[in-house]
Amino acid sequence: MATQAPVQTQPYLSESAALPATRVKKLPLFSVFLAHISVDMQTSSLTVLLPLLLASFGLNYSLAALIVSVNNLVIAVAQPLFGIVGDRKPMRWLMFTGAMLCGVAMVSVTLLPSYWLVLIAVVLSGLGSAAFHPEGLSAVRAVSGDKPASGTSFFFFGGNLGFALGPFLATLLIAAYGTPGALGMIAPTLLAMGVLFLQRRAFGARAGVAGGRLPGASPAANVRRAFWLVVFLLALIAVRSLILSGLQTFIPLYFTGYSDLSKERIGAMVSVLIFSGAFGTLFGGPISERIGRRNTMCLAMLIVLAALFVFLRTDGLAQLIAIGIAGAFITMPWPISVVMVQEAMPNNVGLAGGLTLGLAYGASGLGVSALGGLADWVGLPTVMTLIALLPILVFFMSLFVPEGPRMQRNGARADGR
Predict the structure, then answer these.
(1) Can you tell me the distance from the alpha carbon of 332 to that of 130, in angstroms, rounded to the nearest whole number?
(2) Residues 276, 330: Cα–Cα separation, whole Å
(3) Rounded Cα distance, 231 and 132, in Å
């Protein structure tokens, strides 16, 4: 598709370098997948707990929203820090302790007697989530063999699935058992940790990610030499994330104020967007390993552009299908981008994971706030149109992304070229 010269900066793993093929360790990969589901289920369930906390402590909306903001801020800031620590010394135990801390702290919020203790609990839960993600990404890289993009896709599918299921499961438990039912949210964490513990030996040595370094990386490779490439990739991730977070934020507001659609119908749009986005991450890696990363990312943005055009200009079933297609293809390049940042920082894959999951997440949050201010100035319809046009910017940025290293398969190139 695109033939433009890619942005290339050492120490990015060379596009001409051939790496030895290794097999995917499926059971260890599945165990990290389950752990990711459990961690992100806990984080997303917090929104369902807010009404309980609001009633218990007599909070106003600002104090209630602060609980979520504190949790998100801790996750965004702490993930790169845990990534740096993990690169210096392998600490696979952070996957276990991080996931357990995230779960135990989150389910405890309904038991605590004061608002300030609740804030401390969500800080601890955020630290647990932040500790898990960089080490989890590094572990996935280690057991994904010569299919790092596919393994990362599977990992992110677990996280997105957890985000989608968390509020649903928490609502069911609270509806069935009242406030004590929220304690049942610890069950997925305990189950996932049991499976992860059984596979712990597979993560003992960082096969393929030794000491935070990818195979083929130069010992002299470091973050500073890859600075501009990493900045470019993080900017690409942030803008693409802004499309999804912008749609999730402004679809309810836009259709409530500018249409006569029911709340159920508007909620269905957001649900379709979230669930389709979860499945989109599952296919990005495998597709990129067949047609190339640059082609996958560019094609995805063209499809998103067309789908959002249809979404804003139609109704009924066609509208739901369009937003579902948009959600799937917005998230499809996400795991590819994470792998590219890891390859741009081959001696610092933990930090790479922390940056992509933390700082880019925070940047998209700031972008939504800016869009909200713009909506107050020019109106929601203009902002929705702007969001629908952002795929054009991402498309042109994607033309300049580097392709990845090739893997050896019986002496042949893994990309088939």
Answers:
(1) 23
(2) 10
(3) 23
pLDDT recorded at residue 265 = 83
**One domain for residues 246 and 137:** no
- Sign of the CA dihedral with 116 first, then 369, 46, and 51 last: positive
Kindly report the pTM of this predicted structure: 0.71
84 Cβ neighbours under 8 A, 6+ residues apart: 348, 350, 351, 354
Q: With CA atoms as reference, report the closest residue to 254 among 81, 370, 372, 158.
A: 372
Name the region of 12 (left: φ>0; alpha: ψ -120 to 50; beta: rest): beta
Instruction: Please check whether residues 60 and 208 belong to one and the same domain.
Output: yes
Q: Are residues 293 and 186 in the same domain?
A: no
pLDDT in tens, 361-394: 676 667 877 888 888 889 889 999 999 999 999 9
Q: Are 178 and 236 found together in one domain?
A: no
Q: Which residues contact 414 (CB under 8 A, 6 or more apart)?
A: 21, 146, 289, 406, 407, 408
How far apart, in whole angstroms, are the C-alpha atoms of residue 213 and residue 292?
23
Instruction: Give the residue numbers spanning the domain of 298.
Output: 1-18+216-417
Share of the chain above pLDDT 70, in %: 84
Element at 19 (helix H, strand E): strand 18-19
Neighbours of 342 (CB within 10 A): 27
Question: Among 214, 239, 257, which residue terminates a domain?
Answer: 214
What is the number of alpha carbons within 13 Å of residue 392 lying toward its C-beta? 6
Do 156 and 281 fall within a single domain?
Answer: no
Note whether 28 and 55 are same-domain residues: yes
Q: Per the structure, how many domains does the chain have? A: 2
**Separation of alpha carbons 238 and 364, rounded Å:** 5
**Which pair of structure tokens corresponds to residue 196?**
């992860």
Give me the helices (H) in 90-185, please.
Answer: 93-107, 115-143, 148-177
Domain boundary among 187, 214, 241: 214
Together in a domain, 280 and 372: yes
> Are 287 and 413 contained in the same domain?
yes
CATH of residue 269's domain is: 1.20.1250.20
